[in-house]
Amino acid sequence: MAVILYARVSTSEQTIAHQHTQAQSVGFVFDEVVHDDGVSGVTTKLAERPGGRRLFDLLRRGDTLVVRWVDRLGRNYEDVSDNMREFMRRGVIVKTIINGMTFDGATDDPMQKSVRDALIGFMAALSQAQAEATKEAQRAGIAHAKASPDKKYLGRKPTYTEAHVSEVIALGGDGVGISEIAKRLNLSRQTIYRIQRSPDEAVAAVRAWR
Is residue 136 included in any domain, yes or no? Predict the structure, then answer.
């Protein structure tokens, strides 16, 4: 019976290491850590992520899946609900680092099942609501910045430099993979994708902030 930590980050401000350390600080010991770096829980379903697919391959009856919170599995109500219930059907125990919640897929008691499933639905809805509230706040902030007469809206400040852009292009040209480039330069996979997709825009963003 394995204990597996699943960690997901979608921005450069978040880190996989932090979620790992946070879990260890409350007593979890893992047989394996599975993660997705630079992946949005809003736009990408769990089964469509590399780490998410690995979870479905790994987890067996009696295993324990640890997540910081259920929003690491997704930010969409249907996706989170479906994934949690699939793990339950497999007899997997899901535990959260925050609040120390446990969802036991092995229980046969109908009352416990109904309470558990209702709570899963509530938490899935909460994850989506939080994501939508965050997006709305971001839209409002961007609109305010664009409307300001004394300040040009520059977008989010880049986490990379012009030198990083050159290194990303050079390493990619040498056939180095996205994950390895991100590791070497200490940048997120999402940032590497963005730079490779449009190097000119990446450089322009750096210069605008400078």
Answer: no
